[in-house]
Input
Amino acid sequence: MEGEPLFPVAVKDAAFTPPDAPTYYLLAANGLFVERRTPLFTASVRVEAGVPGLRPHDAHLALHLPRLPRSLLERAVGFFRTVFGRWEGEAILVMFCRPPGDGEPWRFAFDAPPQLIRGRFERGRFRADLRLDYKACEKPGPDYLRLGTIHSHGNVGPWHSAIDVHDELYDAGLHITAGYVDSPLPEFAAAFVVGRTRFTVPVDTILPPFRTARRAPESWMSRITVACRTWSPAWRNAAN
Output
């Protein structure tokens, strides 16, 4: 019958007992196998091409989020713009959400984790490295969940770099990149990562139209540490 496997499918859990069948599929912690028993041999072989008789299935994602608040997005851009203006560096914010309940709507919050911008003096001014190191960030309240991150790419486009993809591989959640933050019209890219699988998210489904950058909280700026590999007389001013 269509939609049914040609052979039994067993799950190898603590109570597993081999089925009384000459051929069956075995789902284990490390993958899917086919077990075959004949008068000549008994073998277990990893299945790479799927189970004959079953219908195919594709990875997919459906987000249940509304658009993030415009005020948070515009404060984030203000933060990124200030960091880029001072050090030509990137910066990151952690996003939190509180799902609706008891008549309350969705709530969102952004916060800056402690982060380190490394760089060097070149031609009289500080230039930041592309790599940004940051630590964990406390939730704004017990009912909030970590939603993901939003980080900047300075004056270049918002595409997710190979470094971004690697860093986010084991960080389940929504990851937004802001590019051209020094321009009146920054651009954004978004992806959601779950189970080491990356889904591209249409920006207009999770971000409102950007209007203007807003002043970032001083608490965000206070979480930034700048480290310079080379000393310069101008360093004292650039670090402030």
About this structure: Residues 70-238 form a domain with the Cytidine Deaminase; domain 2 fold (CATH 3.40.140). The chain has a mean pLDDT of 89. The first strand starts at residue 9 and ends at 11. The CA atoms of residues 70 and 205 lie 13 Å apart.
